[in-house]
Amino acid sequence: MRRCFSKTQKLLLLRRAGYRCQICGIQLTPDNFAADHRIPYSKQGATEVWNGQALCQACNARKSDR
Ligand SMILES: [Zn+2]
Prior knowledge:
By secondary structure, the protein is an alpha+beta fold. It has helices at 7-16, 57-65; strands at 33-37, 52-56. Bound molecules: zinc ion (ZN).
C-alpha cells in the first residue's frame, strides 16, 4: 500500500472539502494543501480517498506533532 496520496486522490479530497482546511477552515491552495490520513498510515489506515482529509500544512504539522 502506498503511503502518499496520488495527484488524483488529492484533487478529490480538495474538491470534497470545498477547498477548505477541514480543521481550521482556511482556504486551501496548491501551496498550503496537505492530504492527511484520518486513520494514520502507521495504524494500517488505507491511502484511499475515504480515509483522507484535506488540511492546510499548519494543521497537518500540528497534528503530527502529537
Ligand atoms: Zn488548517
